[in-house]
Design brief:
238 residues, 2 domains, two-stranded antiparallel sheet
């Protein structure tokens, strides 16, 4: 078992992790470590991971979430937005019923994770100095359950976007544009520190960055042929 713990990774969550989602990645890193070294914290972070996934999807789909909602309610709201059955599937009625049963299983798992977190989580309540924590096997079970749930939610979210789904403005996914901005402008220097112009623009003026991105996408970037830039981007992706 010790060997399994040392190599434990949240494969499902990492597989569907949104691009540029540093907060989400930090939760994953912390949970992978907590499973081995801090079982109580693993219960806390498993809940946090699912909660973060739900809130991300809800916002992506143009909705708002109530910050006071408990996780079971939050995940029900998320499943209402992403639970889709393909129209051309055989036996759609039976498929819907089977998926409903599966989703009920997910909700039961989430409820169990919340209860374990309340009983054994590090951040939920103060404990007696001699409090006895659950074993590693339980932390693994909870973390792996959270991993499966998060993977499913994001896969359904990506597979069946609706007309309200929005595209977030992210720095790391526009490398061709970022390179163009950096080539057209001198590096920003503050004492001995140096920063990329594209990164400075993105962080201090998102509106201006978005306007440049829109110009790039419509072939209207100044001073250089944007078609050439797009061609370079296409070649670099191959």
């Amino acid at each position: 078992m010790e060997k399994d713990i040392q190599t434990f990774r949240l494969v499902g969550a990492r597989e569907v992790m949104p691009s540029g989602a540093q907060y989400f990645e930090r939760i994953i890193d912390a949970l992978e470590n907590a499973v081995m070294y801090n079982h109580g914290l693993a219960f806390d972070l498993s809940r946090t991971l699912i909660e973060s996934a739900c809130k991300t999807i809800i916002v992506d789909r143009g909705h708002e979430y109530n910050g006071k909602e408990e996780l079971p309610t939050l995940i029900k709201s998320t499943l209402d937005l992403v639970s889709v059955i393909p129209e051309d599937i055989d036996e759609p009625t039976k498929a819907k019923e089977a998926i409903k049963h599966t989703i009920n299983g997910l909700l039961t798992s989430v409820q169990g994770i919340c209860e374990l977190r309340n009983l054994f989580g590090e951040a939920s309540h103060g404990r007696d100095a001699y409090f006895s924590q659950l074993e590693t096997d339980h932390a693994l079970m909870v973390a792996r359950s959270a991993d499966v749930i998060v993977n499913y939610l994001f896969r359904m979210h990506k597979a069946y976007p609706d007309r309200y789904t929005k595209t977030r403005l992210l720095y790391g996914v526009n490398n061709v544009l970022n390179d163009w901005i950096d080539e057209q402008n001198d590096a920003v220097r503050i004492f001995d520190f140096e920063y990329k112009p594209s990164e400075v623009l993105f962080n201090i003026d998102r509106v201006a960055y978005q306007e440049l991105l829109s110009s790039y996408e419509s072939d209207k970037l100044p001073e250089e042929n944007p078609t050439d830039i797009k061609a370079q981007g296409s070649n670099s992706d191959e």
